Amino acid sequence: MNLNSSIKKTGKYPDGRAVGVRVLPVNYLVGLLLASFLAAFLLYLELDVLALGFLGAAWIVVPSLIWTDRVTFDGRRIRRTGLLPGMWARLTATRDRIKLNDVELVQTTILRTIKRGGNLVYTYRTTFFGKGKSFSIQSGGRHYREFVESVFPRLSEAVLDHRSIDLRDHLDDRIEVKRRAHAAKIPGADVLEGSLRKPFPKTKSVGDGYSEDKVAELHRLANELRVSGLLPQAIEAFRRAVNIMPADGRLLFDFALCLRSYASSQRDHQVERKALAMMRLAERRAGDDGDLLTDIGESYFQLGDWRRAGTTFKKAIERAGERFRSLIGLAEIALHEGKIAHVIHNFTAAREHAQSPAARRWTSHEIDYFSRLNSDEEYMELEISRMNLLDTLRLVRGSALRIALVGFPAIVAGILIEEALVANIGWALSLVSLAVWTTVIILSHMLATRIPYELVEEER
Hints:
Layout: H1 3-10, E1 19-22, H2 26-44, H3 48-68, E2 70-73, E3 77-80, H4 83-92, E4 97-99, E5 105-116, E6 119-130, E7 133-138, H5 142-151, H6 162-170, H7 174-183, H8 189-192, H9 212-227, H10 231-244, H11 249-266, H12 269-285, H13 290-303, H14 306-320, H15 324-336, H16 340-352, H17 357-375, H18 377-416, H19 420-447, H20 453-459
Antiparallel strand pairs: 1-2, 2-3, 3-4, 5-6, 6-7
Helix pairs in contact: 1-5, 2-3, 9-10, 9-11, 10-11, 11-12, 13-14, 13-15, 14-15, 15-16, 16-17, 17-18, 18-19
């Protein structure tokens, strides 16, 4: 058994260490920058010993906390390690781990995209939700891939969003994917860029020297290239496969996703229209494939075409019967339209088709929440006020940070020209703005969770 197979099977390395990914250190770095800024202010006040001691402690402690803070998987549970998360879990009497059976939802987003020629480098952020806890990991090396390969196959597909399913099925080492593309005689991005807008060549078919296995292999390679960000080569691989099997709905859908990603990165409206046309063609070719129709409906929803998304979800149910993700999609559309009764109805139906206890528990929580919103006007007003306050805090946070940045040049200018008044104004602006910014972040985290209904009952 090779190393990758061992990790996938046990969730551990051969030496017994759990598979783990270092936590994105954004909060730590923010704390370090704030500590450095305060140390600079103490130096400005000529409190040199205090400033240097404070700065030294910050630059020793914070990197140590970053180094030990990881999200690990030992084959049974996902756990957040590190001194600070452990202390916080004990102080708040909350969990520092989620069992696999308790994972209710997995969401993967693309944090940023770096363009390198015609190719892209994606940074994925994956968040696991369960029993009131959430742990996030970010791509950036083989540890993320090992984590995904260990955890995702063990989870029910009902709790994975579409991008997580994509990573589960198609994420591979970028260098290895490039090697396979070279073996398949697919040119590099620099060669393909000029041909991407050309019409397809004459269609071939299975039997003209091509087998279904060969097309399936080409389809798999195209998806691996797409997930790796090698979009020009992915488009070429999809083009070759579609030329052989033009009526394959799943192939057309994956091709549409690839074209959409390329159009978004290049801001090419012509390719974007092709992607939408390919998506609609995939919908027509889907037949009675309920899973494919559900995937297409979710893609329409992400594009903001809620009407077509709803039509596709209903089509999936009519042709293949009720299924969990289709019903969840209808519930989200009803929520967007403000039809709370429809939200409750679709979540109730989805609970009956949930494939895991965690999914049933999550849908039950959603049903309870929206039922209370629908039946209790006071509770609805509180929740609306909370969400409005969150929006206001986001605006205040952005404004406070911009004001703080304005103060930095004033500090530097005042010190350089030896004008104390200018420097003092800069320090005052920055210190007050950063204090407001930090307070707003803390309040936003506190208000991010829904108001417990029991608190409303107790106040009555």
